[in-house]
Design brief:
399 residues; alpha/beta; binds (2S)-2-hydroxybutanedioic acid; two-stranded parallel sheet; single chain; globular
């Protein structure tokens, strides 16, 4: 047996090359560009009018309180900070907050929540196929691949017109088998900004129920679109209608704690005991992958949400971020009728109808860094960069 294993053994030097993650590679490319006028609309981080990604004032205060009051850094366990998850419940689940068939735990960001969600789904049904509307967040496909679930892509977005291909989406969901997974964006669709309307959510929920699909909702930008409750409309509608729902949530953006990795995973099944069993699987997988999530960011979010005055201040700072996103959208949208769709979309991203060659040309000639797909971060732009960016994009569309 040992000899056979050794006969197959390969060395690290035999590993094949890997294409680096496109969004992370873009950060490095932009950082390396010496041109002072460069515009970074690549990776999704909020920037203010002068182009900074400040730590929220309320977060600074919570971190100071944490520094003074924290008396131990002893292990918390795979669930992380349980009170953090309890405090998030009403914000995410709204009227479902008291449903004891729904359980949640802290994860390392929304990405950790997604990985854990797919681990759980693969454990429950390794034959499940995952229906993915494209384009999607570039890290979705690799995460699905990592748990060896089959992915079925359908076309979600009509790039030229800036609209959702809703009929194609419904056809795809209708053709799925019971037990298949529908991966859905809760709000502020990444990369297109094209969110389902309330009527479209109703139709999606109807088909998910009719086909017996398991919905997995990725909600990483709650509060960046229309408001905390409005952005959770689809999540809550799905919870109204389905016994089994999984939600991957992130605080990284709405608390502006990106690198601290603050997220949560939520699981609903038809009974409290089935949820407890599912969560036991979740804790075990978390233990295998990261043992327990990093504490600092979640501990600071916990302090904010536990305190009425800090919570109120967080809502004001969140509203200011949302208002900036929406005002930059309106400014770009009003510059040219071909960009008007940007004013009807939500969240940090929209996707321009540009080819990869056009995107690369904007990078070379105007030092504008956006994803090869044409996705750009609306609030990557400082106020003084908006006109130059818009003019360059219009020039590319005219060419
Ligand atoms: C993005 O899409 O830019 C963000 O979600 C950052 C990331 O991790 O890709």
């Amino acid at each position: 047996m040992l000899t056979q294993t050794h006969a197959r053994a390969k060395r690290l030097a035999d590993l094949p090359p890997v294409n680096s993650d496109s969004l992370l590679a873009l950060i490095a490319l932009c950082d390396a560009d010496p041109r002072p006028e460069k515009i970074d609309v690549g990776v999704g981080v909020f920037r203010d009018a002068v182009g900074n990604t400040p730590i929220l004032k309320v977060m600074k205060e919570a971190e100071q309180r944490l520094l003074v009051t924290q008396v131990t850094k002893a292990y918390l366990g795979s669930a992380g900070d349980k009170r953090f998850a309890e405090l998030l419940r009403p914000i995410l689940l709204g009227p479902h907050a008291d449903d004891d068939r729904i359980a949640g735990l802290q994860t390392p960001g929304g990405c950790g929540a997604l990985r854990l969600a797919f681990e759980l789904l693969a454990a429950a049904n390794p034959n499940a196929r995952v229906l993915v509307g494209t384009p999607t967040w570039p890290n979705h496909p690799p995460i699905i691949r990592s748990v060896r679930l089959e992915r079925v892509d359908y076309s979600y977005y009509e790039r030229g017109q800036g609209i959702i291909r809703f009929d194609a989406m419904i056809d795809a969901l209708n053709s799925a088998e019971p037990g298949d997974v529908a991966l859905l964006h809760g709000c502020c669709h990444n990369p297109t900004g094209a969110d389902l309307s309330e009527d479209q959510w109703r139709e999606v929920v109807r088909v998910v129920v009719e086909r017996g699909l398991t919905p997995l909702i990725d909600i990483a930008y709650q509060g960046f679109g229309r408001g905390l409750d409005e952005d959770a409309f689809g999540v809550r509608l799905m919870l109204d209608a389905c016994d089994e729902v999984i939600i991957a949530q992130s605080c990284d953006k709405n608390f502006s704690v990106y690198r601290d990795r603050v997220g949560s995973l939520w699981v609903k099944t038809g009974s409290k005991s089935a949820t407890e069993t599912a969560m036991a699987h979740v804790y075990q997988r978390a233990r295998e992958m990261w043992s327990m999530p990093p504490d600092h960011g979640a501990a600071a979010v916990h302090i904010i949400l536990e305190d009425a005055e800090l919570s109120a201040r967080w809502l004001v700072e969140l509203a200011a971020m949302r208002d900036r996103i929406n005002s930059v959208r309106q400014r770009i949208a009003s510059a040219d009728s071909r960009l008007s769709f940007i004013g009807r979309q939500f969240g940090m991203f929209s996707m321009l109808p540009l080819s990869k060659e056009q995107v690369l040309k904007l990078r070379e000639t105007h030092a504008i860094y956006m994803a090869d797909s044409g996705r750009f971060n609306v609030v990557g732009l400082g106020d003084d960069q908006i006109d130059r960016f818009t003019a360059a994009v219009i020039g590319a569309l005219d060419a």
